[in-house]
Write a structure and sequence with these properties.
The structure holds two protein chains of two kinds. Chain A is of the alpha/beta class. In chain A, 42% of the residues lie in helices and 13% in strands. In chain A, helix 13 (339-345) runs antiparallel to helix 17 and helix 19 packs antiparallel against helix 20. Chain A is globular, with a radius of gyration of 26 Å. In chain B, helix 4 (69-100) crosses helix 13 (228-236) and helix 11 (195-211) packs antiparallel against helix 15. Chain B starts with 6 loop residues before the first helix and ends in a 10-residue tail after the last helix. The chains are: A alpha/beta, B mainly alpha. Chain A: Keywords: Signal.
Chain lengths: 574, 296
């Protein structure tokens, strides 16, 4: 080996490096080849379409799966996706068999799916995000589901799809053809509230804050006055992490309190309506500057963690669990996770939700128009597109009471491996109403008998267990999490309902797929925003914000604004 | 050979030892951290309280790991992959390097052949073409998809080639005079002489195969065929950081996700075999290359 001369070594090393980089930069550039689709057979049956009718001959459906491990710890060990008990029932009830072309961990799904699109090797039923939907739509690869939906959709499915006035369905229609069935949720699930530790407030004799100024006093006390009474100076004020706008433990709610609506959570600008009915980017409005100014002073006096710019969401979760921080902006589900971890670790801990503090009294939260990231479509080559609709019917049907003894994780039912699955968009609200109805009437069991039974019954049991202190099925924290996020009147969803009723919200008006210039410039603008905002919070002069606005506009922001407004006048379903 | 212990030399030894000790500690700390998390209670681990010593000592995660079918299934796949892959790699490297180490007058088209191999070091087909190639050759979803693409590592081949060149020509010539052909020279002379470099390249290959995870995700279509590292990657990357909102289903997943101790136990066990292999192969690194075969 001593014969290799140094220069040769270096040359080889550079070659090797260039080889790797060359490989990794090429993965997204390949274009998709589409095969012409000519055959579209219709299965003619003389009997009227039955949403759960059994096929006379076995129908084989191919799918692909981006999977997570089974979520329920009671699921049998070592079970494989194709052994899912749902499939056994599906075959018995509908005579449909599901074959996986491949399965891949969900974090790699995106990449593997683009490979499959590039090699034109797509399954019958497709789980898509809006971006891939648009691609396949433009290549004419998607089957028309209009008739299949009309004839075969079960009453429950139709009810779900009409629950928002058909708004979501319409988004995935093209030339009068229904090309996909969207899985969407109540947009209000995204609304922000302030989670705060009640036991800390009580320790310090403080009231829950209603304005930013009050919040500042509380947060300051949480930093300096030893709210957990452990004699150590080990707490800080408000949870924050390097992503200012994210799906959790971020500062969306804080900005909303200032009447600023910078982002819905994806670091791209949110779009609000101005007085003339045009859409303006929330990210560059003057209110954002005021909010940043406040954050800057909070960073200085220790209300924000000095290391927030180095933390990700996992670190925030650790701090909440460990009892280092007692205030966090977030959505209705926090009790479910991670507040339950904190409750289990510290029996004294007690969290409450309040409306986000504003400049004068409680503020308004930003709410999207539509909350959907996934939809189901059918390959144009598939012979029985209605099978997909029937499978959705089947999944909804399995929530009914009569299947409850069977449909359990320990018997091999893994719901997150079954596709296509559509939920009741008003699932959480149904749970809230039904559980409270049963509680008020002092029932011992849920009397509801429709497809929501399982979801309602699960929360009802957790609520009962929590209120009676029963920890035989789950820990106190887990039971509380179910109860306080979904059923409690002053809890996560209870608070969200109040926001909705008192109209304490502002809509993000843009809900289409990203416009062309967003795709092109979005990442760069996102980076610019992250850098400028973090710098300002950490002490750069506040006027940097004006510089940021100028660069944002010239680097593509103006173009995006124009394209978004074009979309708004032409395509938005108003 | 005894050095005179001058002051500067003593100083050098002290600093050298300290520096090496520091580097050692820095490399060991992550493993100790992992080990302590895996031996801690779940609440302490999810609150991030564990540093270098377990908090709330518990063996639970290892007991649970013992029942985890997925872990052992993928461990077995990894073992198969390492054994098969290393044999195939070493064999190909060995028989390719031999002719290419000969001079141009003994092997006429040597230069074009060398370029043929070298060119793959500059240019790669890219992810999608490679995927299509693997798919169309029918390797998809079998363990050979992890072994055959990249079965000949050109880098290792060049190492081997240069090592062959450092073997004195006299050995070769002596064998030829005694009537040995290329096969005999290759297997009876070159093989025993090059054991140290085979060990080196073998170690690279073993570590490479053991650590590779991405090809498993690309080419294997069901998780029960995943090698260990691919399986481990599914554990630690189950949350997509790109999303802007979290669905009800993902919240349920989060609620059940907090088995941090079990994850670290698996990661630790995954790293253990390769840490054990190292010391056994290491002695070949230090050994002299060719000892006393020829006197010049």
């Amino acid at each position: 080996m001593k014969k290799i001369k140094p220069w040769k070594m270096m040359l080889l090393a550079t070659m090797a490096v260039s080889l790797f980089t060359a490989c990794s930069s090429q993965d997204k550039t390949a274009t998709t080849t589409s095969e012409p689709v000519t055959t579209k057979e219709e299965t003619k049956t003389n009997t009227p379409p039955d949403p759960l009718g059994k096929y006379a001959d076995l129908v084989t459906v191919t799918e692909v799966l981006g999977y997570n491990p089974p979520e329920d710890p009671r699921t049998p060990q070592g079970i494989k996706p194709e052994e899912n008990a749902y499939f056994k029932d599906l075959k018995e009830m509908l005579n449909i068999e599901v074959k996986y072309k491949w399965t891949v961990p969900s974090s790699q799904f995106e990449q593997k799916f683009s490979l499959a699109m590039a090699s034109a090797d797509l399954p019958d039923i497709l789980e898509l995000d809006p971006k891939n939907f648009e691609k396949l739509k433009n290549q004419d690869m998607l089957a028309d589901l209009t008739d299949a939906y009309k004839q075969y959709a079960s009453p429950a499915l139709k009810k779900y799809m009409e629950s928002d006035g058909g708004f979501a369905m319409k988004t995935f229609e093209s030339d009068g053809k229904q090309l996909a069935i969207p899985a969407f949720e109540d947009p209000f699930l995204s609304s922000q509230q302030l989670w705060i530790r009640k036991d800390w407030l009580d320790n310090l004799n403080l009231q829950a804050p209603k304005t930013i100024d009050e919040l500042e006093k509380v947060a300051e006390a949480f930093v300096k006055n030893d709210p957990d009474k452990n004699g150590k100076n080990d707490t800080y004020g408000i949870a924050a992490q390097k992503n200012l706008f994210f799906w959790g433990f971020d500062l969306r709610g804080f900005f909303n309190g200032f009447g600023a609506y910078p982002s819905i959570g994806d670091n791209q600008s949110a779009w609000i309506k101005d007085s003339e009915g045009k859409l303006i980017p929330g990210l560059i409005q003057p209110e954002v500057k005021a909010a940043l100014g406040k954050l800057q002073s909070w960073y200085q006096n220790g209300i924000l963690d000095k290391e927030f710019a180095l933390k990700d969401e996992n670190k925030s979760v650790e701090d909440i669990t460990a009892g280092k921080v007692g205030i966090s902006y977030g959505e209705w589900w926090y009790p479910n996770w991670p507040l339950n971890l904190n409750m289990d670790k510290d029996p004294k801990a007690n969290w409450i939700a309040v409306q986000i503090p504003g400049l004068e009294g409680p503020g308004n939260t930003l709410v999207p128009k539509i909350r959907s990231s996934k939809l189901f479509a059918v390959n144009k080559k598939m012979k029985n597109p209605e099978a997909a609709i029937k499978m959705i019917n089947f999944y909804i049907e399995m929530g009914n009471k009569k299947y409850m003894d069977q449909n359990k994780a320990e018997k091999g039912y893994v719901y997150n491996w079954f596709n296509p699955r559509i939920y009741n968009p008003a699932q959480i609200d149904t749970i809230y109403t039904e559980v409270n109805k049963a509680l008020d009437a002092n029932q011992t069991e849920i009397t509801l008998d429709d497809e929501n039974y399982k979801n309602v019954a699960d929360v009802f049991k957790a609520t009962k267990d929590f209120l009676s202190g029963d920890t035989s099925t789950a820990s106190r924290g887990v039971n509380w999490g179910q109860y306080f996020s979904r059923a409690a009147k002053d809890g996560g969803w209870g608070m969200t309902r109040q926001l909705k009723e008192s109209k304490a919200y502002v809509n993000n008006e843009f809900y289409g797929i990203p416009v062309a210039s967003q795709v092109e410039k979005g990442t760069q603008l996102d980076k610019l925003m992250q850098e400028s905002f973090t710098k300002i919070i950490m002490g750069a002069p506040l006027d940097e914000f004006d510089k940021f606005v100028a660069s944002w506009k010239s680097l593509g922001g103006d173009q995006i604004t124009q394209e978004v407004n074009e979309w708004y006048t032409k395509q938005a379903t108003k | 050979m005894r050095h005179k212990q001058s002051i500067s030399r003593k100083l050098f030894i002290v600093f050298n030892t300290l520096l090496l000790a520091l580097i050692t500690v820095l490399s060991v700390i992550p493993f100790i951290h992992l080990l302590s998390i895996s031996l801690s209670s779940n609440t302490a681990a999810s609150a991030g309280e564990v540093r270098l010593w377990p908090v709330g000592f518990s063996f639970d995660s290892y007991v649970y790991l013992g029942e985890k079918v997925e872990f052992f299934r993928s461990l077995w796949v990894s073992v198969k992959r390492v054994v098969l892959g290393t044999i195939v790699n070493l064999f190909l490297v060995f028989i390719t390097a031999y002719p290419l180490s000969k001079s141009n007058d003994r092997f006429k088209f040597r230069t074009p052949y060398v370029w043929f191999f070298a060119i793959t070091m500059f240019f790669g087909g890219g992810l999608i073409p490679t995927y299509i190639l693997v798919k169309n050759t029918g390797l998809i979803d079998s363990i050979w998809a992890l072994i055959l693409p990249g079965a000949l590592n050109v880098w290792n081949m060049v190492l081997m080639l240069n090592f062959f060149r450092s073997i004195p020509k006299e050995l070769d010539e002596a064998a030829t005079i005694d009537g040995a052909g290329h096969w005999i020279i290759l297997w009876k002379i070159y093989l025993p002489v090059s054991l140290p470099s085979i060990a080196t390249i073998g170690l690279f290959t073993i570590v490479g195969h053991w650590n590779a995870w991405f090809d498993g995700i690309l080419y294997l279509n069901s998780p029960d065929k995943y090698p260990l590292q691919t399986y481990l990657s599914t554990l630690i990357m189950s949350m997509n950081a790109q999303m802007s909102s979290i669905s009800i289903e993902q919240i349920k997943a989060m609620e059940n996700l907090s088995e941090k101790t079990l994850k670290t136990a698996q990661i630790f066990m995954g790293a253990l075999p390769i840490m054990i292999v190292y010391p056994f192969l290491q002695k070949y690194f230090v050994k002299g290359i060719i000892v006393g075969s020829v006197k010049e």
